[in-house]
Specification:
Blueprint (H helix, E strand, L loop, with lengths): L3 H17 L1 H26 L8 H32 L2 H6 L4 H27 L10 H25 L3 H17 L16 H4 L2 H14 L6 H24 L6
Helix pairs in contact: 1-5, 2-3, 2-5, 3-5, 3-6, 3-7, 3-9, 5-6, 5-10, 6-7, 6-9, 6-10, 9-10
């Protein structure tokens, strides 16, 4: 039987902690995105980086929102779990009357709420710099939720298995950041040489960003096959992460 009260308690605690530390959990990434927009706006003014029917800034802002939410979705659970293991408080989770799967689900649910809050805050502020006649709130929330589940699953597993900040930083620097930067955040697939375009053609995360960006400007026709592959891809990562939590491998030294 699922312990809903325990899950709700963890979710409430993590959301409250996120909002209490708003200076670096909300304001810091927002300021970073504003700096990106200001810098690229200046460059665009002199070098005309427009992409067809939309300006480069219009193209950039959705990518920045996804990148910020993705990085936070990885950092938040991984940092939280590693920190709690180092100070010994994670043992309290394991001794409490709830399973490791319930802990995992609590982290996923809380991070979905946190990620959507962060995404909406960035959208409200950054929308001042872009112009759009169409916006799909459903696509915005749906694809952003997929991003959150994907990166939270990875972050939770890294925190679950690691004991040192070096491990967390290594995964962040050598996997999370490259995936974000090389999946269409700052450029379209047509900007790459033909022999490198295959990197994005077979990258499900690229299509998540693509459809998320489309929710800002175009009422596009949804490709059911690609969206099915995206859902399978995210679900696979989610269930693998849940299985690792269930087995509880190498959790406590």
């Amino acid at each position: 039987m699922i312990n809903f009260f325990a899950i709700f308690t963890i979710v409430k605690f993590r959301i409250r902690e996120f909002l209490y530390e708003y200076n670096y959990s909300i304001l810091a990434p927002l300021i970073s995105n504003l700096l990106f927009v200001i810098i690229f706006s200046t460059i665009d003014r002199y070098y005309s980086l427009s992409l067809g029917t939309i300006t480069f800034i219009d193209f950039l802002v959705p990518g920045l929102i996804v990148m910020t939410v993705a990085q936070e979705s990885f950092d938040n659970p991984s940092v939280s779990i590693i920190n709690s293991k180092q100070i010994g408080s994670f043992d309290d989770f394991l001794l409490a009357p709830l399973s490791r799967i319930e802990i995992f689900i609590a982290y996923i649910i809380s991070q979905i709420v946190i990620g959507l809050i962060l995404g909406l805050v960035n959208f409200v502020v950054l929308s001042y710099f872009i112009s759009f006649n169409y916006f799909s709130i459903f696509s915005f929330v749906y694809y952003l939720t997929l991003v959150i589940i994907f990166f939270t699953s990875i972050g939770s597993v890294v925190g679950f298995l690691a004991y040192r900040w070096d491990t967390q930083s290594t995964v962040s620097n050598f996997f999370i950041s490259p995936v974000n930067f090389l999946s269409g955040t700052f450029f379209t697939i047509n900007a790459l040489p033909e022999n490198l375009q295959v990197i994005l053609f077979y990258n499900p995360y690229y299509y998540i960003i693509f459809y998320f960006r489309e929710s800002f400007y175009i009422k596009t026709e949804i490709n059911l096959f690609i969206n099915f592959i995206i859902l399978i891809f995210v679900s696979f990562i989610f269930f693998i992460s849940g299985y690792i939590f269930y087995k509880g491998y190498n959790v406590i030294k």
